[in-house]
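PROTEIN–LIGAND DATA SHEET

This sheet pairs a single protein chain with one bound small molecule, zinc ion, given as SMILES. Inputs appear in the order they were entered. The predicted three-dimensional arrangement of chain and ligand is reported afterwards as a token string under its own label.
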Amino acid sequence: MIDPFMSIAGWLQQNALLPLLYRFGWMQWEELSFGWALFAAYGLFQVLVTFAVCMPLERWRPIERWPDRRAVLTDMLYTVISRVGLLPLVTFVGFYQVQVIVNGYLVDHGWVPPTIDLIVPALLGHQVLTFLIYVLILDSADYWRHRLSHRVHWWWALHSVHHAQRQMTFWSDDRNHLLDDLISALWFGAIALAIGVPPFQFPMLVLVLRFLESLSHANTRLSFGWLGERLLVSPRFHRAHHGVLAAGQRSCNYGAILPWWDMIFRTADFSREEVRTGDPEAEEALASGGYVAQQAAGLRRLLGVRSAAMLNRAA
Ligand SMILES: [Zn+2]
Ligand SMILES: [Zn+2]
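PREDICTION REPORTED AS:
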């Protein structure tokens, strides 16, 4: 059987990538470009699967209905750019390159590159278990990255792009500032390197995790049940994280896949129901502007520059 992903990747490489690489004399990237095309095809497939699962859920039991869904269109653009373009590039091409360089450096200096089964030899040969341990470690690291991004002033300016959306749907997961995406990639990538996630498994891992993260943003009245919600982050749990805070309320539910870190570090709140989402302090462009307007507004917020509209409002 011909693998359809391989076929799509081959087509993409032949028709789009190779002519470009020839044109600029970058033939050393030929092999990697196939890897990128393959993960772009997986990314596209993932977007389709996410759509097929989440769309009916949102239609079936929506929490909110909006007559004008233009703001959702922007999030769709974010998703396509991120899942089909950037994530395959960063997780496959970027991660692969860095791992080759780092491992080469380590070997040159007489060190053995890290892998998790070096630290825990019992894991040798247990691929599924090893994969789950990678998930556990990376998800806990992501909890702290996310929690810090709410705490550190300049970082929040970037992360607020994600929170400004008042029409939150499963498309909203990728709605991030590009600089915030860059920090996340470095953070995630550095930890994946330190624990020795193999280059091909890394993008696979990101594919699986990001599917769950999309689901957790869905505009749907979907409960995983008392226990289920404590095992895996549900749409209800993550919506509480996006909720507009009432007086005296603190941010909660930073976990992306597992709610356990929130439970351990006392930031979990399972009681908030169907809250309104958005960031009342964000300038309007951050909420309802197009892709470029949101990126620019995030940068302005980072630099502490107030737009003319905000100055007028303050005056
Ligand atoms: Zn957040
Ligand atoms: Zn979110």
